[in-house]
Design goal:
CATH topology of the largest domain: Rossmann fold
Number of domains: 2
Bound molecules: NADPH dihydro-nicotinamide-adenine-dinucleotide phosphate, (2R)-2,3-dihydroxypropanoic acid
Largest sheet: 7 strands, parallel
Order of helices and strands: EHEHEHEHEHHEHEHEHEHEHEEH
Strand content: 5-15%
Number of helices: 12
CATH superfamily of the largest domain: NAD(P)-binding Rossmann-like Domain
């Protein structure tokens, strides 16, 4: 009998073929609507493998309903939506999609830096709103990116890719993280700082850490108060790394120049979010890895990981190491 799999969203054909060739699958066949929790809870009762997106919480309650589960293949590099410890305890392999999305996400972090610094969405709204009457010396002026100091919180795959881009803009690059990386300091020309010094010295601060119990809320009012009034904060990691009410207050009172956010504490961003009323924040709907090529690679990678585990092989991208 073929292994049984549940896929929590419609995925690209290329990825689906990999699963269909080896497994009996059922799928929540929607592009843009997440699987209702009660449907997911009932589907997992019968499955050996679960193909998830970051929108699904794989918690003890769901795992209790999935006695036959052997693998959770997450179509994302971040896996804070999966209780990995609990999966390991139950012998469930967890996999993710590192690497294939690094450059695409770094592109978006840079796009957010530039958009927030140069007020690109605000300027476009201004034009479309029919407000452009004449060229004026100080109309919609922002802050410069070229030559400014960039502070990276987290110098992992994506942080490094952002550092490489910054070199093309003649930006001195500082980084902070759990561990100092002298090898990368030489290779990338980046300098280590403790978090507080990085926040004090940087013109742009870009966050590239995973969401863990240690990083949750790591940027709040104390940290924002250390930043320059002309600084820009960019977050493409996970929303809860930044304390949103603290950032909102800082932006409202213009204690920093602007922010660019791809990720939020609650996603989708609630329609009554106070951020929506601020001109000095660029808001994107979690599209860091959203190029056709990259999303297809992520989907295929997750499918391969899933099939590998269900065929008794070690997966290419395990998060827990229990096989
Ligand atoms: P990596 O694991 O390569 O890098 C993460 C970095 O964060 C590492 O340098 C790590 O240090 C560091 N880090 C971990 N914990 C801490 C901590 N407590 N304090 C300081 N630094 C810490 O991951 P990626 O670069 O591939 O991805 C980073 C995150 O970006 C993902 O986890 C995901 O949440 C998010 N992401 C968002 C996307 C989007 O669409 N917006 C797209 C892709 C990723 P060490 O090496 O010591 O562990
Ligand atoms: C990830 O992979 O962690 C992103 O958030 C989605 O690409």
């Amino acid at each position: 009998m073929k292994p049984r799999v549940y896929i929590t969203r419609r995925i690209p054909e290329e990825a689906l073929k990999i699963i269909a060739g080896r497994c009996d699958y059922r799928m929540w066949d929607s592009e843009d609507e997440r699987v209702p929790r009660d449907v997911l809870e009932s589907e997992v009762g019968q499955v050996d493998g679960l193909y998830t997106l970051l929108t699904e919480r794989v918690d003890p309650d769901l795992l209790n309903r999935a006695p036959g589960l052997k693998v959770v293949a997450n179509m994302a590099v971040g896996y804070d939506n999966v209780d990995v410890e609990e999966c390991s305890r139950r012998g469930v392999v967890v996999t993710n999609t590192p690497g294939v999305l690094t450059e695409t996400t770094a592109d978006l972090a840079f796009a957010l830096m530039m958009a927030a610094a140069r007020r690109v969405p605000e300027a476009e709204r201004f034009l479309r709103g029919g407000k452009w009457k004449t060229w004026s010396p100080m109309l919609l002026t922002g802050v410069d990116v070229f030559g400014a100091t960039l502070g990276l919180i987290g110098l992992g795959r994506i942080g490094q890719a952002v550092a490489k881009r910054a070199k093309g803009f003649s930006m001195p690059v500082l980084y902070s993280g759990r561990s100092r990386r002298p090898d990368l300091e030489d290779a990338l020309g980046v300098e280590w700082r403790g978090l507080d010094d990085l926040l004090r010295e940087s013109d742009f601060v870009s966050i590239h850490v995973p969401l863990t119990e240690t990083t949750r809320g790591m940027i709040g009012s104390r940290e924002i108060a250390l930043m320059k009034p002309t600084a820009v904060l960019v977050n493409t990691s996970r929303g809860p790394v930044v304390r949103e009410p603290d950032l909102y207050e800082a932006l409202r009172e213009k204690r920093i120049f602007a922010a660019g956010l791809d990720v939020f504490e609650t996603e989708p961003l609630p329609s009554d979010s106070p951020f929506l009323g601020l001109p000095n924040v660029v808001l994107l709907p979690h599209i860091g890895s959203a190029s056709v090529a990259t999303r297809t690679k992520m989907a295929v990678m997750a499918a391969r990981n899933l099939v590998q585990v269900l065929s008794g092989q070690r997966p290419d991208n395990p998060v827990n190491h229990i096989m």
